[in-house]
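Question (not urgent): is this output format expected?
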Amino acid sequence: MREVLEVLEEALRDNSRVALATVVRTEGSAPRAVGTSMVVSDEGTPVGSVSGGCVEASVLESAADVLASGVPELHRFGITDDDGLAIGLTCGGSIEIFIQPYAPASCPEFVELLRARRENLPCAMVTVFDGPADLVGHSELVLQDAEITGLSVGSTLPFATVSAANDAVQQAIASGTTLPVTFATTGTAGSVSLLIDVYRPPRRLLIFGAIDFSASLAHLGSFLGFHVTVCDARAVFATAARIPGAHEIVVDQPDRYLRQEIARGALARDAVICVLTHDPKFDVPVLDAALRHGFAYIGAMGSRRTDRDRRDRLVGLGHTDATLASLRSPIGLDLSAGTASETAVSIMAEVIAAKGNASGLPLSQISHPIHRGALRGETSPSRPDGRSHDFSCA
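Got this back:
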């Protein structure tokens, strides 16, 4: 939904109705990720994309039907050999799209989502896209460490299913992963499928050292959606004019600033720490603090000789092979980078690979699926029922 939030906000201000089409499940290689949305106005004007191909035309027609009836629909598009390349799906692949009427003025959960995003609160918009008729289309905002209420009050779902759904939502928020989950239930309820659309504050990228490489790294990090902070003890270098891509410029001793941020709880474990100072009196203390706390990515720039010297100094501070194993130094992937911009790409490529525990190898040299994000808690795709339709682009 995040791609169309501005359009939904505008609809909220204008008190207008729209149809919200969202990718809720995929099989095979898909052109759009789960959670990607498209808004269709009463006039049939689309904003956003759910496939980038022939599916859009069918979605527009279905969106008009949904707006007319007020009843949400789940559509499953199967892609054949002849047209698979048209929208990027392989033979046998499929994409499921949930289309729901959306009147933001009457959706308190949307107002709550806007507030949560303003306050940088981790949360998830949870939508039932398949299951009991009285629940399909139900959406609610769930904050971190809170529980789903709409599935337990007045519904036919057993307690065990609601409890499992709560666990799945909290795990998704903690991991920052948007995904669908399906739960089998007992009795007449059958199964229920939820889209857990996660919203978290931007990951933080802390760059220590306001050197020439920092400007390119800050620019690329910001482009990739990180909240970028550059810290250097030298005020003459740490300026917004030199590093315009950073959200924050901090003049302070790197290790002191990092320890303060850790102490006040401002850094999640998924924060990215990049040490570019090239000076042991700055980089060793800040690496010591970062390694002791444990972050998702800790990297340091320098030659192999610098790296060996730095590791020896860290051993002198009590670090072992186990703690130093998480230090990515020299920083970045082997791209034969020469310029500052190329080096920034090398570093951020390693950051992205580290998040998914990927190899960093060319896709032509691997055999596993390109998109490896397994749908945790997901069962096999549900069969179409009264609200679902199978389409082929053939």
